[in-house]
Design brief:
Chain B: GO terms for molecular function: ATP binding; ATP hydrolysis activity. Chain B: Belongs to the ABC transporter superfamily. Ycf16 family. Chain B: This is ABC transporter ATP-binding protein. The structure holds 2 protein chains of 2 kinds. Chain A is α/β, with parallel strands linked by helices. Helices cover 16% and strands 42% of the residues of chain A. Chain A contains 5 helices and 20 strands. The longest helix of chain A is centred in the last third of the chain and has 20 residues. The radius of gyration of chain A is 20 Å and the shape is globular. The N terminus of chain A is likely disordered. Chain B is an alpha/beta fold. Chain B is 37% helix and 31% strand. Chain B has 8 helices and 12 strands. Chain B has a 6-stranded mixed sheet, sandwiched between helices. Chain B has a 4-stranded antiparallel sheet with strand order 2-1-4-5. In chain B, strands 7-8 form a two-stranded antiparallel ribbon. The termini of chain B are far apart. Classes of the chains: A alpha/beta, B alpha/beta.
């Protein structure tokens, strides 16, 4: 068990943790729409050294794979405007400017981006559903615009096979409340990478939930910045990696405005000899971001021998005038004492394991706030565990 | 009528310094309705006896037998032992985050009985038992042992014992860390279950205090991995007056 918990990190210049020493500030990263401006990454590159580079090849190689786009189907309640945006057509590209080669490929490889606009003041009770189905090699770019003071939930369902590079660009108006749930329900052989980036408006509340259960390799960058004061961003994630799966989540909160709040919580379980997970959690509190309150947490539960979870929180603080900044990271083995306790009450091993793993995820699932997603998830996790009992460590 | 027979039990444990023999030939027979106090100084192997009978993987049985009504307990998995009628109230009950007490109790009851309890009677049973143990109703919605005080943990153990209705219960230092009020409530709970179900009890304790509330039929003094002396309740009184020094010198 390794644990870091600096619940109140002090603001003495940059504060970093773990083995990673960032090349300069996280906020100074190169951005471009030009794919060729980004080199092909190698295993020594800081941003890819935890990645499944071999699996990701089809989403890193533009030339070899002219993409014909993924099938993107939007089902939305009345009032929501669904359209398309050409390359360079605003608001496309105004918030998400690619920070890495994969995002640039997803952007450049999508001629017509899907545009979902939630009108100002709309209060949607039913979620907007976006079904993204991959095949062979596919690209997508989705622009979600939440109008001023609107309230909505968007559920992205990723299914199918092949290699998919997909971006989600979220533009939030002042006072809007938006939940984006991204479900990675890929076939076992699928590869998925991309960036989900949001600009959280003044006094707006953003919640992004990444649920990665399927796919051979998933590499999602989930990032947020603020468009004004008083914004709140919550990034939640849940992943379960079986043998042969490589699930990577890279979160970044750019506290670029004063009086904003952020909370990042990712939890994952690993079962199987070659199960891999990666969580990189970057938080930058810029000099201007006085009154910031931020916390990030990653917990991993290793169910069998041989699985590997990397967990790297990075916190950069450029001002001392903050409410709070903390992070916690812990990777623990499945607890034999918990198992013994439950089994000594007559509960059989597989049932006891389910209880413990369900319990591990329970508080995170309760935070999702989308009842239909919450209910389905518990069943999905149970299913993963049934799979587990078929292939013991 | 149930009989738990422990015969010539030898148990070792692996430590960083090598294998250590802890139990060196324990003989003990507990029948329904009987209460056996196992007393002894720290490190004498009392808890090892409890956990070995319950099947904790940390302990290796190197010799001897444990039989429950003639069935070989040592061949059973941990949960099979519980289903057979054994119960271990732990000294340090384990936290299970995210699992509510009510879910835990129902799951355990279902596993022990082989079928889900009838909802109406079950809810009533749980409520009644919790009231008897002076546990607030909100307890049922808390996560198992998470943030429980020492007294709450012990009451929760006895609650499980009352609801799961084992044949033989091993109480491992259930009295440690309890104030007088909590000790009385917990002891009342044990006596109630004994009266109602004819439970056989192995009561492991360091102190004689709990024996004022739970009257033992037999007292066994445990020293250096085996029973050094046994007798009736009067032995406990003598220990109260003299302490364990006499045995430690002999050992």
């Amino acid at each position: 068990m390794t644990t870091t918990d600096h619940s109140q990190a002090t603001a003495d210049a940059a504060h970093t943790d773990g083995v990673v020493v960032p090349q300069g500030s996280r906020g100074e990263r190169f951005t471009s729409f030009d794919v060729d401006a980004f080199e092909q990454p190698g295993p020594r590159d800081e941003d890819y050294r935890f990645s499944a580079l071999r699996d990701l090849a089809p989403v890193l190689d533009e030339a070899a794979a002219p993409a014909d786009g993924a099938s993107v189907e939007v089902t939305a309640p009345q009032g929501v405007v669904v359209g398309e945006l050409a390359q360079g057509e605003a608001p496309r590209g105004t918030v998400l400017v690619p920070e890495d080669r994969i995002a640039a490929i997803a952007s450049a490889g999508t001629e017509r981006a899907t545009h979902v606009a939630i009108p100002a003041d709309a209060q949607l009770t039913d979620p907007i559903r976006v079904a993204i189905t991959g095949r062979e090699r596919s690209r997508s770019h989705l622009v979600i615009e939440a109008g001023t003071h609107s309230e909505a939930t968007v559920i992205l369902e990723h299914r199918g096979t092949g290699a998919h590079a997909g971006n989600v660009e979220v533009i939030m108006g002042d006072g809007s409340q938006l939940k984006v749930v991204s479900l990675q329900q890929w076939d076992d052989d699928a590869v998925h990478a991309g960036t989900h980036h949001a600009r959280v408006g003044r006094d707006a509340t953003y919640k992004h939930v990444a649920v990665s259960l399927g796919g051979k390799a998933v590499r999602l960058a989930v990032t947020a910045e603020y468009g004004g004061t008083g914004g709140s961003a919550e990034l939640l994630g849940l992943y379960y990696s079986d043998a042969g799966q490589h699930l990577e989540h890279r979160t970044f909160i750019d506290h670029n405005a004063p009086q904003c709040h952020s909370n990042v919580a990712y939890k994952g379980a690993l079962a199987g000899k070659t199960a891999r997970t990666v969580w990189i959690g970057d938080v930058l509190i810029r000099a201007a971001a006085e009154g910031t309150d931020t916390y990030e947490l990653n917990r991993n539960l290793v169910l069998t021998d041989g699985a590997r979870a990397d967990s790297v929180p990075n916190l950069e603080i450029e001002t001392g005038e903050i409410e709070g900044a903390g992070h916690a990271s812990a990777t623990g083995r499945f607890d034999d004492e918990q198992m013994f306790y439950l089994r000594s009450r007559g509960i059989p091993e597989d049932r006891a394991r389910k209880l413990v793993v369900r319990g591990f995820f329970a508080d995170l699932i309760q935070q999702i706030g989308v009842p239909e997603v919450e209910a389905g998830l518990m069943q999905e996790i149970d299913k993963e565990l049934e799979h587990f009992s078929e292939e013991p460590a | 009528m149930t009989t738990l027979e422990i015969k010539n039990l030898h148990v070792s444990v692996d430590t960083p310094e090598g294998t250590k023999q802890i139990l060196k030939g324990v003989d003990l027979t507990i029948r329904s309705g009987e209460t056996h106090a196992i007393m002894g100084p720290n490190g004498s192997g009392k808890s090892t006896l409890a956990y070995s009978v319950a099947g904790h993987p940390k302990y290796t049985i190197t010799d001897g037998e444990v039989l429950l009504d003639g069935e070989n307990v040592l061949e059973m998995s941990v949960d099979e032992r519980a289903k057979a009628g054994l119960f271990l109230a732990m000294q340090y009950p384990v936290e299970v985050p995210g699992v509510s007490v009510s879910n835990f109790l129902r799951t355990a009851k279902t596993a022990i009985d082989g079928e889900a309890p009838k909802l109406r009677t079950w809810v009533k049973e749980v409520k009644g038992s919790m009231e008897n143990l002076r546990m607030d109703a909100s307890f049922a919605e808390r996560n198992v042992n998470e943030g429980f005080s020492g007294g709450e943990k012990k009451r929760h153990e006895i609650l499980q014992m009352e609801l799961l209705q084992p044949k033989i219960a091993i109480l491992d230092e259930t009295d440690s860390g309890l104030d007088v009020d909590a000790l009385r409530i917990v002891s009342e709970g044990v006596n109630r279950v004994k009266d109602n179900t004819g439970l056989g009890v192995m009561l492991i304790t360091h102190y004689t205090r709990i024996l004022r509330y739970i009257k033992p039929d037999f007292v066994h003094v445990f020293v250096n991995g085996r029973v050094a002396e046994q007798g009736g309740p009067e032995l406990a009184e003598r220990l109260e007056a003299e302490g364990y020094d006499r045995f430690l010198v002999e050992a």
